[in-house]
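Sanity check record (used in CI):
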Amino acid sequence: MERVRAGQGDDDDDDDDAADGDDDIGYLQASDAESLHALENLMTEFFSVSAKNERKREIEELLNNFSQQRDAWKHCFYFMTHSHNQYVIMYSMNVLEKLINHQWVGLQAADKMEIRTALNTFLLNQHNSLESFLRNKLIKLVVDIGRLDWPHFYPDFFSSILQLVQQPDTCVLGLILLHTTSEELACPREDLCMSRKAELQRLLLQQIPTVLSLLNGILSSILERHRSMVTATPPPSPTQNRSQMTLSVSPVQSSVISSSPVQSRNLVSNLFKSPQSHVQTESLPPLDAQSQYIAHLALNCLSHLFSWIPLSTTITPALLSTVFHYAAFGCEVSPGSRGDSGAMTKGSPHTVSPHTLGVLAMGCINELLSKNCVPQEFEDFLLQMFQQTFYLLQRITKDSTTNSSGNRLAELDDVYVEKFTDFLQLFVSIHLRRFEANKHFPVSDFLGLFFRYTFKQPSSEGFFACLDTWAVFLDYLLTQLGNRTVDRDSILQKYHEPLSLLLTHILQKLQFKYNQSQLDELDDDTLDDDSETEWQHFLRQCLEIVAKVAELFPTITFQLLFQPFQENLNVYLGLEQFISLNGNNIATLDVRGENECRRLHCTLRDLSSLLQAMGRLADHFIGDKYERNVADAKMLMERLSYTAAYGMKVKLYEVQSVANSVLQADFIEVHAQTLATIKAFAGWLAQFCVESLKKGDQQTEATRFLTTLLDTVLALFITNIPEKMIQSAAHLLWSLLCTVRSPTLVRHDKLQQFYNTTSHGALEHRKLQVQYLVYRSLSHYLLLPWSGCTDGEQCWEMRATHHKQFIHQLFSSYLQLQDVSPMIDNRHMQNNAKPCVKKSLQMLTDIISSLAPDGTSRSKQICYQSVQDLIQVTLALFPVYLHMTDVTIEFLEFFLVLFDCLKVQMGAEFTKQIIQTFVSIFTREQLTEIILQESATGYKVIEKYLAILQVIVQEPGSSFKTFLPNVIAISMEQIYPVIAERPAPDIKPSLYSLLHQLLMHNWRYFYKSSVLHRMQDCTEDVENQEQFLSIMQAFGQSFLQPDIDVFRQNLEALQSLNQSWKLYSKKLFRDLMLFQFLNVLIQVLLHKSHDLLQEEITITIYNMASVDFTSFFETFLLQILNGCEGLDSNQKMILGENFKHDKDLPSFTQNVQRFVNDLRYYRLCNSSLPEGSIKL
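Expected output for Exportin 6:
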């Protein structure tokens, strides 16, 4: 730092020196003093409440004009040194900042020296009196100069900072300078060339050992002063006898981390032992305000340094020990308690609590732990870090004697607890694998501490964060068990006890029986962004861990779950004896005491939760686990089916009680969850039915299960029950009919009756979602193959007949609209029929689309035969409702599903008929009108239309290839010209997706030559060349548009075309399009318009260049450079020479990034040079 006097004199001298108008501020034409006075007035006026926008614009223009004057910076130094107005000082600094960052290269050396000297002098003289934001801005200016000039033209930049850090009166200033230097030089902005960035990185790394040593010295000296105070006057402590709860403060005395290499076995065996110490940290007095502030700055700086420096021996054991001593400050009670009393003076500008130091220290530790790449020589240090942190974990999980709950975590600073949770997450996710296999590593002890930490969390968010870490640990174990080389039994035995304990406590945590006070506080009404209430989120998080533990220990999990489940279920099933009829013949629950009602409420809530937990175990009873768990599954299904029947018989959801508003909702929830749990076990029920058909001895039992469940479910649809229960019933019906698919159900009388009543509109009063699910279930039971039956036993003919009857009856109202002639010009009839048309189309779409995943060709054929008449009605109605876009969308969605699922069954001729209908309806004029209306529904119509065309072009059959000319004409002649130049992204993704799929699935439409022909003849025969070029030009045009999603989509499309069909290698593409695409992509990188796709763009450039690297390096780069404006010939030559001819992807990527960065840098430099300057 240059300690010389600034070049400004006193006010009178400056007034005399102002000689001409070149040095005036704008229109003022006055001396510096008068200009300063005018500037202060302007700033005051600008920021006043009464200033109007028009006047503010005038002032902005005036100030901008002044800042663009060549010597404006000289006046700014006068303003800074002679004004106390914060706005004036900030404005002056902004002018200097613009000069430094944009015009520094063009300044004379003497001017640079003057600016540098003046800034340093002003900073040294005024850093204590300036507001912090002004001081930090000033520091930023000094560092910006160092970023540009150090060490060549500013050799003492860094050494002067280190000197400031070591001086007591400038230590604060030096630490802020050091932190800012780390921020600005370690990861500099784009306004430096790559070589300069690398140079700065190298220079900084050379200084790191010195910097870390200085920071450690500062932090250690504060701790030493701390230790001396405690030694002189040791205060009494209620925990004085806990000799194991001590922590060394003096770095000299600390034996926690030795500077010599350690034996891992000795270290890990003592991992949780307390370090030796003479001082108890629980009774440490607070630091003085200045020491805390300096420690705060040093830790902040250290945290940023740790974020970018590599793990190496420069991070010494002494430094780590010091950081952990500060981390112990967070173990004190939270602000407002004794740990904060007297620590700072009220109103101090640099108020820092001791807990903040603990937070910052944990941030430093987490920065180190977040590095996945750990040198082998650093692993010993990692172990020592874990020793320190686990010791802190022991401290904060011990019971407290200063609050009623005894929970020490509740007394700590929230942010500190969050940082500690982050540490545990980083340790488990990144580093546990390094040490878990070590038989001396105390994994069980660690899990025990983490277990205590988890269940002592004072907030739900903290508890969820811990559960996330447990989930990471469980995933790690599951991955380990998936490795065939490991001893599965030994791993399970090792973690049996801790995970059983975890499971037990999580089950208690989610039950009102054990945790009512906390669970009552969770909101169960308001939905969050994930459509969950706070209670639902809590339960889901807990059940996720239960499910993961069940993957490791399914039997133990089932046993731990079944006991409380059985207890709560017995209470529920015993409620019938407490139901009686009152004088009005209304069922009443004879549970009247407040405590009894509360206990019943808790029992029902717990039963609902445990039912959901049971449902999460369903996968552990099927597949290869079926035989060994069949007895438990049968017992559970017996209980569940009985519970469902019991709920339907007793109708507890209708029973009145003294706590009706609470208990009624509980009864509904239990019944709904019972049905949902049975649905979860539908896979087991299907396997049980198949096995019973094979063996024969259990067939009666399987039939009994199914009929009991089916009777219970069907009965729910004919009674007036709450909507939540009917939704669960509809989902269970789907599972019974479409997952189990037992042939025995087809003869069930109640099911046949249900087919009849449903097709005649018995469910019309239900919600559409329920209706669609039921209709889909009934349809698919007749379409999908029955489980356990051979093809000869499927009864396809009978089922086809019943399905057609069911569909025709269900859509009888729609079929009556087949004569559309009266509706064509009758808007009233159209509006009357509109609800029927929309609902029918939605129902048809749902039935057909849901058939696609599981349907066989026979299933689809039966479905097509059933809906064939409905398709004809739809074709007739389509033109009638074309003017109603909301109905048109439903038509197109139906046809889209029809083409996607049943196009083979329809055949080419019928498909051609439909396409011709579309072509005649959607003329170019019609499409243009819809697009230009710019309505959301209109866009959806076009998108659905394009999606239908996409399905057609993807069909491999030769009969569908005849549609390609029409599809290309519709896309490129009717739709693309309208939307090409429109900046809005609407419709474009759908159009480009169609073009991509057209090329992917119809490449031979353009390139028909065989492989043998291409081997014998080097020429490429391209058919329909104009169409191909127009499509590729459309892709190229999209890269000039701002929408990043379309850009990404089309990059991926080009890459897939190249991977499948070698697009970039085609002569036509190389000769006519390769240079254009490369040029556009390079320009996109230069302008940073799609910076989020930088990696994808660079990979695409590499793939295009790899077709002919020689041409790329020797021809393309020269063409790019020759076309670049704002560069001189020497700069172009340097850019070309610096682009190394590496052909591997990582090196090529670095070269492209360097090329783009340096080109941008040269342009920036040249634009900031004054006229007549010699460019670099």
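The chain is about 65% helix and 0% strand. If this sentence no longer matches the regenerated tokens, the check is flagged for review.
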